[in-house]
Write a structure and sequence with these properties.
Blueprint (H helix, E strand, L loop, with lengths): L2 E5 L4 H13 L5 E10 L22 H17 L5 E10 L1 H12 L3 E5 L2 H5 L7 H8 L4 E4 L10 E5 L8 H13 L3 E8 L7 H13 L5 E7 L3 H11 L4 E5 L3 H9 L8 H4 L2 E4 L2
Parallel strand pairs: 1-2, 1-4, 2-3, 4-5, 6-7, 6-9, 7-8, 9-10
Antiparallel strand pairs: 5-10
């Protein structure tokens, strides 16, 4: 991973995602791209990941250019690192199209984005702008909640129901991220009923074991009818630092990331999510 995109609106949430990324990749040779988007085609009422409130403009404002310059100075001052190179861009586009176009032109391999934690994720659905970024921009994304603070990710949790084949790109991204900080992968299946795995699920589980063969890992099962409660328990008991999810498995993915229903569910506020794409 050498080309990494960090969208920014110069907010606290964007800065938190930036500082997390700088520390996460501190020993890697990386070019960070800071992209600010003037949203010219935003429909009324749309909510952004951390871009809410930006007005449509006919031309890029001088204030945006000034803010970007200040942003870069802040980045250099916060985390000087000879392994890191920084590029910046300000474009006018719709949010999704702007990111897609920039990723294509600059060969972006990975993204890091900030969220507003409980206020930003708790009430959202997969149809929101946040969901659109994660599901429609086919690029691995590390989603960093506003309450997340960097610590070396020793353990990556990978909840799955074994209902899909784990294609090469998904596993490669997971393993690449794992190697950066020598993390341990803990695979979780939540058994919400007494029904055993079917043949397809067993095959996928066995394949995943082979794919993770050369990486430290373990498999776990929690019996709990409530998926969100089970994941919270797993995060707490196994000291999970990052939760990895596959974007294609929309039902499973939506329930875990976008619809934690009760107050005691806090993983979406404190734990970064690694969103994997085929």
């Amino acid at each position: 991973m050498q080309q990494i995109l960090i969208p920014t609106d110069f907010s606290k949430n964007a800065w938190n995602a930036t500082t997390y990324a700088l520390q996460f990749f501190k020993n890697q040779n990386v070019t960070f791209h800071f992209l600010h988007i003037d949203i010219s085609m935003q429909a009324p009422g749309d909510k952004e990941l951390h871009f809410a409130g930006l007005a449509s403009k006919k031309e890029i404002s001088k204030s945006s250019k000034t803010e970007m310059n200040v942003w870069l100075k802040q980045v250099y001052a916060y985390h000087p690192n000879t392994r890191h190179t920084f590029k910046e861009a300000i474009i006018q586009a719709s949010f999704i199209d702007g990111i897609r176009d920039y990723n294509s032109k600059k060969n972006i391999e990975f993204m890091v984005m900030g969220t507003k934690g409980a206020s930003g994720l708790k009430e959202m659905t997969i149809g929101s702008k946040t969901g659109a970024v994660i599901t429609r921009v086919k690029c691995p994304i590390l989603v960093v909640p506003e309450d997340a603070r960097f610590k070396k990710p020793l353990t990556i949790g990978f909840p799955t129901d074994f209902n899909m084949l784990y294609k090469h790109r998904i596993i490669k991204t997971l393993l690449d991220v794992t190697k950066i900080n020598q993390s341990f992968i803990k695979v979780l299946r939540v058994a919400q009923n007494q029904k055993p795995l079917d043949n397809f699920q067993n095959t996928n589980r066995d394949l995943l074991k082979l794919q993770l063969n050369e990486t430290p890992h373990s498999f776990h099962v929690i019996e709990n009818p409530n998926l969100e409660n089970a994941l919270q328990s797993f995060v707490n008991s196994m000291q999970i630092d990052i939760v990895a999810m596959i974007a294609k498995n929309l039902n499973f993915f939506q329930r875990i990331l976008f619809k934690p229903q009760v107050a005691r569910i806090s993983y979406h506020m404190q734990i970064p999510f690694l969103v994997l794409h085929e």
